[in-house]
Specification:
Keywords: Signal. By secondary structure, the protein is α+β, with helices and mostly antiparallel strands. The chain has one helix spanning about 1-20; strands at about 30-35, 40-45, 50-55, 65-70, 80, 85-90, 100-105, 110, 120-125. The protein has a single domain (about 30-125), classed as Sandwich (Gamma-B Crystallin, domain 1).
């Protein structure tokens, strides 16, 4: 009976962990990028050393970091949360050209008034 109880508890904890991840909570990631101001709306996370290309399949703006393409995010980022003293670099064009916004520290940036809905590539690094 004790084994059945232990098994049930493990299943409950596993379900809770899945629900937490599915709820949009982004623990452990270096940088969380949000669709709206005030860290609201849809969100995606990058770990330190990762880059997301948001507009095309060109990884030229990723500066050699581990790159992935995220469809549907071009020009949609409005706020950023940083964890573990990470740095987020937002670039206007996927080839790295154009304006660049750097956000540093262990904090959230509730809005990017001078770079709202501009990023086509984002990098996260320590």
């Amino acid at each position: 009976m004790k084994r059945l109880g232990d098994y049930i508890m493990k299943m409950i904890f596993a379900a809770a962990a899945v629900a937490l991840v599915g709820s949009g909570t982004m623990a452990q990631a270096g940088c969380d990028f949000f669709e709206h101001n005030d860290l609201q709306g849809a969100v995606f996370a990058l770990k330190d050393g990762e880059c997301a290309v948001l507009s095309r399949n060109s990884t030229a703006g990723c500066e050699g970091l581990n790159a992935k393409v995220l469809e549907g995010w071009n020009d949609r980022i409005s706020s950023v949360r940083l964890n573990h003293n990470s740095t987020a670099i937002l670039k206007q064009h996927d080839d790295g050209s154009g304006a660049v916004k750097t956000v540093q520290g262990n904090r959230g940036v509730n809005s990017l008034p001078d770079f709202n809905d501009e990023a086509s590539v984002v990098l996260c690094r320590q």
